[in-house]
Structure formats: C-alpha cells, structure tokens
Amino acid sequence: MKENGVWINVDSQAPNTIVYEALIQDPSIIGIQEDFRELQQEVTYDQSRFDIYYETVRSVKWFIEIKVLTLENNQQAMFPGAPTTRGVKHLQQLVQARKDGYQSHIFYCVQIPYITSLSFMKKWILLI
C-alpha cells in the first residue's frame, strides 16, 4: 500500500517474523535481561493463537501479541486501524493468560517512517 508517497507493508505476518528474529538476536529489545529457555512462534493458548511465546531460564512464561499499525492521521499512528472481534478476543485472552500466571507484551509495530506518535481509540480499548 502506498500512503503519502511512501510504501507501507500491510502483510501482518512480516512483522511477526521480524520481531521473532530480532528477539533471537537481542532479547533486550523488549526489556528481557536473561536468556530464553524456549522461544516459539504461533502458540495456541485456550481459544487463541499468540504470535510469540517464550520462557526465560527462570521459568517466567510470556506471550507476545504483535499488532501492526497502518492507520495514520497527521503523522500519528492509530490503534486499532480496523477494530475486529478477533482482535478484541486476542486482547481478552492475554488478560486471561495474565490471570493464569503468564506475563504478556503487546508489541506495536509501526511501519510508517514518518510517524511521530501513537494514539489509542478509547472506545475500542474499553471493550476489553
């Protein structure tokens, strides 16, 4: 997709691969200060499949859900770009995973080079 003269990737799987490979190279990109015991892509939990699962050497278990941001207004990325029932379900499942003892990250992947800030659509977030 081309927006304001700039090509923007809208393939939701590409960022998943990029983040996964970046974690292999440098876990500190998301604040991890210890080695992985396990690192996997596309892991099923309850009724969802999360983008990345990892477990640290201290047996702390994490899920990462990667959200690609492609909606932009005045150099501001907006989340969600297209609210979906599936997206709400993923976030609700992350909340449930936290209750079950897992930790979680939501990784917002902004692929628009001229973005200067991020905003969240409050109405959608309140559905969680």
Q: Tally of extended strands?
A: 9
CATH C-level name: Alpha Beta
- The proportion of residues forming helix, as a percent range, comes to 25-40%
> What is the CATH topology assignment?
Trna Endonuclease, Chain: A, domain 1
Please state the second-level CATH architecture: 3-Layer(aba) Sandwich
Strand order of the largest sheet: 3-4-5-8
What would the principal axes of the Cα set say about the shape?
A: globular
Explain how this protein is built.
- The protein is α/β, with parallel strands linked by helices.
- It has one domain: Trna Endonuclease, Chain: A, domain 1.
- It is built from three helices and nine strands, in the order E-E-H-E-E-E-E-E-H-E-E-H.
- The strands form three sheets. It has a four-stranded mixed β-sheet with strand order 3-4-5-8.
- The longest helix is centred in the last third of the chain and has 15 residues, at 85-99.
